[in-house]
Amino acid sequence: MIYGFTGVTNFEELAKIFTGYKITLFGAQSSGIFMGILFIAVGFLFKITAVPFHMWAPDVYEGSPTLVTAFFSIAPKISILANMVRVFIYSFYDPTWQQLFFFCSIASMILGALAAMAQNKVKRLLAYSSIGHVGYLFIGFSCGTIEGIQSLLIGVFIYVLMTINVFAIVLALRQNRFKYIADLGALAKTNPILAITLSITMFSYAGIPPLAGFCSKFYLFFAALGCGAYLLALIGVVTSVISCFYYIRFVKIMYFDTPKTWILYKPMDREKSLLLAITLFFITFFFLYPSPFFLVTHQMALSLCL
Amino acid sequence: MLQFLASFYFNLSGLILCPLLGSIILSVIPDSRIRLIRGIGLCTSLITFLYSLFFWIQFDNSTAKFQFVETIRWLPYPNIHFYIGIDGISLFFVVLTTFLIPICILVGWSSIKSYKREYMIAFLICESFMIAVFCMLDLLLFYVFFESVLIPMLGPIPYSPIIIGVWGSRQRKIQAAYQFFLYTLLGSVFMLLAILFILSQTGSTDLQILLTTEFSERRQILLWIAFFASFSVKVPMIPFHIWLPEAHVEAPTAGSVILAGILLKLGTYGFLRFSIPMFPEATLYFTPFVYALSVIAIIYTSLTTIRQIDLKKIIAYSSVAHMNFVTIGMFSLNIQGIEGSILLMLSHGLVSSALFLCVGALYDRHKTRLVKYYGGLVSTMPMFSTIFLFFTLANMSLPGTSSFIGEFLILVGAFQRNSLVATLAALGMILGAAYSLWLYNRVIFGNFKPKFLQKFSDLNRREVLIFLPFVVGIIWMGVYPEVFLECMHTSIGNLVQHGKFD
């Protein structure tokens, strides 16, 4: 539709056409273009599992084989967020979309925090937690400033690392039909290092300092406050605390609960343990020396907009 | 020879890294070599303590500027760096921290049966973060370390030995840990928002720059409330104090010592270092509010203490009362009040920790914390009775002990500001005497309860040696506090003048 109304699909050309072109909700100069952009946005939001269009995520995450789940909880997020940044910030820069993304972000965060509390299957919980995390990433995206894009890039990177870590752990325990969270019980006694890894990753997801998840969240909230999206930051912070509850529940189950049947875990293969070690190292020690990474993402964000 | 030592450049970052080095060394030692683990843990903490004493010796009393300042670059773009320094206010908190950690390690010497190595590592990491909190002069990094103390503290809480008895089920421990964590986190995220707001509006989180920026009064009020949300949970002030008795009851002895000795001070230190200097108008605006909450807290918790039946809960509630005394002193905003509050904080760090150690000694022997099972201990545990008497009198603020000096100065300061508050707070002192003496009476004097307890043993050498530094510290601070106060005069005078409070 965009092509139909503007005659171009090149990003740069679209950017030139749309500067100064007011597309408001009521009385757009060309409602066709508005619909076109809206459809593009909805399509993207579907694939990212942002909130009004997230219904498919928990069921699909739970039903697919874990390897596939791991892949499509990481890869589409990176690629589609990058794509959205190009499309919406480079080409269609307009406050109308900002409101749409604000709403998606708030709803994702709230849903991700609240719905995950009632889950008792691991992969569904991870699905909801990734919905929540996408909500946080959207905070960075919806304020269209350079800090916003920078925080989005940092958040995506750290999210990828944390998700790799979590899914590696889930895969490592897969041998014995690891479906329910309660199966994790007493992991601390049978496999203490894996338990520590999982608890650090969970704390990082919750955004507790001094881990990497905190760095990404603080920068996201900083970007939100910098552009005046106070409600977004406030809701982000409150849902962060709510979600902390069920992340700590993981830790509690591992260390304090005894499962009904003691499950014996086979040791994992070497590549997985290497991967877990690298991502864990990064999550724990990112805090000490984040500046090269921040500089790189700052340059990336600048190069997008200039 | 002393000249040679004095020319050494003592590094604050070295002080923060020292326990971390110890914990890294500990992490590679296998779990079976317990004596080596304990030895390394104790040596690391003692070395850190001596290191921190060097800072005290080399501290210059005549200036209010930050000393031993170091900057480590962290994030260049938003101007956030590891900006470390000490002044008169934070010096003693660092010394208190490094003093209490070896004691905690000694306490866990024989009573922790499992996960010994993780216990030591958690304590050393905790120590390192706590020293970093007190030295950090950058808002965001202060917040980071302020919160990171939660993770290692969360660890030792459930690691006390499993009781095959009626009390202390796992469910309660987990609930206590949850409460501790979530209460503190919820309050703190508002502070995070406030800090990020300050960063985005002024472009820096460096304290020395922020001390000179002026915020408008309305903005100050909002930011002050956000900071208050975080600090008041830690203090703890009255609507948010519920986590403290639960956490104390479920924690092992060493965990209680750290919790009461240092973690509570983080909140009031935050008030003193950040809320009061950066937001002076908002502080003046909210002073009646803080006074009201503190006075209610003192009277309410003192009255509640009288009806408690669990030894640790009694001391936990008395901790709440003392810390609210401290906030009264701080918000009186004159030199006597603030000096009294810092002295009471230090003294509370010593006295409450010692009381928890006494209770821990009883608990190690008889595995129960209920008062009704204890009685007539003076005949079988005379050394313990003497030491317990000393700390009970110190808790009561008997003249001659450090808490008397602290409370006296606080009342002097508060009386100048608002005599009604001072009178009510003094009432709290009387109630403090009531519950302390009654507790001592019930536990130590009176008849035996042979139905419940048959075997007794007095304190062993390790425990007496643990208590001795506390006794020395309390008497020293009580009889000649000028040694401590002289380091604080200039910094506090600077603080009062900065906010134009006089």
Automatic annotation (TrEMBL), chain A:
Transmembrane feature ranges: 23-46, 67-93, 99-118, 125-146, 152-173, 193-212, 218-248, 274-296
Membrane topology summary: Multi-pass membrane protein
Protein name, entry field: NADH:quinone oxidoreductase/Mrp antiporter transmembrane domain-containing protein
Keywords: Membrane, Mitochondrion, NAD, Translocase, Transmembrane, Transmembrane helix
Domain NADH:quinone oxidoreductase/Mrp antiporter transmembrane: 1-243
InterPro entries hit by this protein: NADH-Q_OxRdtase_suN/2 (IPR010096), ND/Mrp_TM (IPR001750)
Source taxon at top rank: Eukaryota
Localization per record: Membrane
Pfam families, per the entry: Proton_antipo_M (PF00361)
Source organism (scientific name): Sphagnum jensenii
NCBIfam families: NDH_I_N (TIGR01770)
From TrEMBL, chain B:
Catalysed reactions, as listed in the record: a ubiquinone + NADH + 5 H(+)(in) = a ubiquinol + NAD(+) + 4 H(+)(out)
Family, similarity comment: Belongs to the complex I subunit 4 family.
UniProt entry keywords in alphabetical sequence: Electron transport, Membrane, Mitochondrion, NAD, Respiratory chain, Translocase, Transmembrane, Transmembrane helix, Transport, Ubiquinone
Membrane topology: Multi-pass membrane protein
Cellular localisation: Membrane; Mitochondrion membrane
InterPro entries, per the entry: NADH_Q_OxRdtase_chainM/4, NADH_UbQ_OxRdtase, ND/Mrp_TM
Nucleotide-binding keyword on record: no
Protein name: NADH-ubiquinone oxidoreductase chain 4
Function comment: Core subunit of the mitochondrial membrane respiratory chain NADH dehydrogenase (Complex I) that is believed to belong to the minimal assembly required for catalysis. Complex I functions in the transfer of electrons from NADH to the respiratory chain. The immediate electron acceptor for the enzyme is believed to be ubiquinone. Core subunit of the mitochondrial membrane respiratory chain NADH dehydrogenase (Complex I) which catalyzes electron transfer from NADH through the respiratory chain, using ubiquinone as an electron acceptor. Essential for the catalytic activity and assembly of complex I.
Annotated signal sequence range: none
Presence of the UniProt keyword Methyltransferase in the record: no
Tree of life domain: Eukaryota
